[in-house]
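so my prof wants the structure for this chain in the tokens format not the other one, which i didnt know existed until like an hour ago. anyway here's the sequence
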Amino acid sequence: MKALGPESNFLAIDDPSLYEYDKARFVIQQVPYEHTSSYLQGSAKGPGAIVEASHFVEFYDEEQDRESFRSGGIATLPPIDFSGKVDADAIAEIEKHTDRLIADGKFVISLGAEHTVTLGFVKSHVKKYGDISVLQIDAHSDLRQAYHDNIYSHASVMARVNELGLNIVQIGIRAQCKEEAELIRSSANIHTFYAHQVRSNPDWMNQALSALGEKVYITVDADGFDPAVIPCVGTAEPNGLYWDETIRFLQLVAANRQVVGFDVVEVAPQEGQILSEYTLAKLVYKMIGMLTRS
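here's what i got, hopefully its the right format
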């Protein structure tokens, strides 16, 4: 499989031994699928914007005292083409692409547009790793059975994941409908740490960690962060997570669980603003560093 060169790959890595597909431990797949955005649109530009912004992220991580990308390399793939594919067909295409990367022994990092794409990633990782927990950082529960009569809406992605019988741990939720709240209360598999609880519970990180199984897939919706951290999202909500607490929690998870894959979704770039995509590019690199260390 052909990986992108330094002019268009993640971090602008110029050493072929660290960006070629066959040699890289990590693979970044760009998944610009946007079909059901319900407020602001533009998330289809998110994956490319994160990759472009990563060219300005420093290789050296001062917290870890090393250049993390040198521990295995990072290959970046061209965006997936969704021409003529929506809903179930789009999910099947995502699952097929992810299957191939996992079969090649890669750790898959997915940059998505709308949150719907996570269903394809999770289904693929379940085939490889079996019983996994899904850690969701998000403002929204995404547990509606359907939204605008579409069961593949971005607002229903975790309902579809829930149907797979997986353990779900949600962090930072602060916008949902009554039916979602009732589902959470009645479910033994869904563990939700609402934003107001995170603010009032100093032990939330350890409690969330305890709710996770041994193998964890992480999905980060950009609107899980407070708009002061990530302003350019489709559906912003106040009282979100801040950078430091999010990084500390992810470090805790990476050090104590087997993280099998992760995605970052739902950034909607705006002209003249780079904070959101740059911060998410740095988040991806931080997570790579955590995984190479653990």
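also thought this was worth mentioning. The longest strand covers residues 258-265.
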